[in-house]
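Protocol step 4 of 6: structure prediction from sequence.
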Amino acid sequence: MKAVLLLPFLIASLFAQDNPPKFLRLLPLGEVPTLKPAGIDPKTKARLFKEPPPGSFLPSDLGIQAGENILPLQLSLQSITPLLALPAETTDLLLRPSNGGAPWLSNKAPSLPLTLGVLYRDSATMNWNNPKLLLLKDDGTAFPKGTARFVNVSDTMVLLRIGKGPKLTTYGIPPGGSTRKPLKPGENQIWIGYKDQRGQITVHTENGIFLQEGDRAAYFFYKPQAQKPRKPFLIHHKIEKVPKP
């Protein structure tokens, strides 16, 4: 009798091992828009602001479809979500309002055990009603400790140099592209630049990054909100360990 009762649990356990969930993290990149003033409230004396155009803000009420369920998301700009478990049989990645409305974003679901999804606005419209998603392998094999990954979702070619000295190799990261470079434990010098409108190489930023044993570093380049920005892309970087589901 005991063997009969245990059998369904053993089958369920074996099935779960054969079909493990796929784990996903999401990182939205962008800026909070600057609101335009609209005067002063005559009664409260509070400052008034004009209603921003639709799609100016990252939606705050999204969920991710996981089988029959919608898992609530807490998206915040420049902040990576905790690991999200998707059923192994998931074929479409759907982000939709938590009340079950039409999808805000639809994409092919990741097929790898661990994936990072970079969310950003379409460079032409710069509108969150037209979101884009770049999926990146995120496990310790594709992005191991002791390395830095550079991801470009801006519309500008990013130039990269690593180390110190007069004869450093310059790497180009095209829009939508990424590259990974080894770093040593301790201080590492990172130079990031671009070509200006005259074709001259221009420094965007140059600084050191310190990695402890077991760390990896991630750099993300994305388009600014302003129509005439001082620099053609912004940078978000993060030091972390390889996440463990």
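Step 5 (inspection) to follow. Helices lie at 2-18.
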